[in-house]
Specification:
By secondary structure, the protein is mainly α. About 85% of the residues lie in helices and about 0% in strands. α1 (about 5-105) runs antiparallel to α3. The longest helix has about 100 residues, at about 5-105. It starts with a helix and ends in an 8-residue tail after the last helix. Keywords: Coiled coil.
Length: about 130
Amino acid sequence: MDPEEKIEELENQLAERDRKIRELELKLADCMGRVDELRSEKSGLQEEVNRLQVLKLDLKLRDFQELEDENNRLKHRVEITKGLLDEAREKLEILEDVVEGFLNQSLPERITGKKPDALIHYRDRFRDSRFNDL
């Protein structure tokens, strides 16, 4: 092989390597572009995941607050009902004493129209004027 053929062969090898380098550079640029796209997509997806997590937490918080409000409303209703029941129980106990007082009155007390002490206590305690005429 003479030197000219050797030079030509080396130039052909060099041209082939340059062509491969250009191909690899194009592939690298393509891959780098795809990597940038994937990074951008990943960033967008991460933002969406974060947004959805915040929405999920917001919904849980709202549900918790609604349950807490309902619980507070029910507690308040229980307190009111308990107060009304306590007052009704007290009225009933005093009225039982009033009935017992009337039943245990002697004849002179009935004739003079004396009212049992429990009735006076009931009228004073509950400001009930329905029994004033008794």
